[in-house]
Amino acid sequence: MDVLTQNFSLYGKGFLGTVQLTVYASLLALALGILMAAFRVAPVASLRAFGTVWVTVLRNTPLTLLFFAVMLGLPRFGLVLPFTVFAVIALGCYTSAFICEAVRAGINTVPVGQGEAARSLGMTFDQTLSAVVLPQAFRTVIPPIGSTLIALAKNSAIAGSFSVTELLGTYKPLNERGYSIVWSFVWIAVGYLIITLAISAIFAVLERRWGVPR
Questions:
Q1: Nearest-angstrom CA–CA distance, 35 and 99
Q2: Average pLDDT over residues 5-30
Q3: Would 183 disulfide with which of 3, 73, 86, 161, CB 3.0-4.6 Å?
Q4: Which of 184, 23, 183, 6 is nearest to 88 (CA)?
């Protein structure tokens, strides 16, 4: 317990950093993921192509490589932001590809006749998607989205290698202070466990309330 009690502020700062990364990156991933899913089922060929390229490239790019591309590449184009913002962009964009596929799978579970009925009433594609299709698709994709965001929380550990304050990075100063590396990682693992269990609990509530009975 000495490792935790004597360095509680350090652990707290790292824990808060991971929570912030997870929350902001999750919001970005959800927004982009839903948008890309809409692109992938859009009647416009160019939008479908863009969505397909987005998903294909990001799903097949190692996250560490994407971090390097964002952290080192964007400043070359004049975009200079705090490293934390760059980390949110990298995590959010990467995870959005997986969110997109989960949402698209949910869209495919909605009977085609409902979309046709909406269009026969004069609703546009945007109206049909937002008012008819997505609300039903959301009910079926709650579990996979929850799993994806749990993976995002664990993937945020990569940000520590790029000077971003997060939970895993606390082991470095603790090691320099001579604390047991084993116990340092034990409490880091406990921190990640708290975060992932919290996400699981949130999505369990969502699934009980809106999920499709199985």
A1: 10
A2: 89
A3: 3
A4: 23
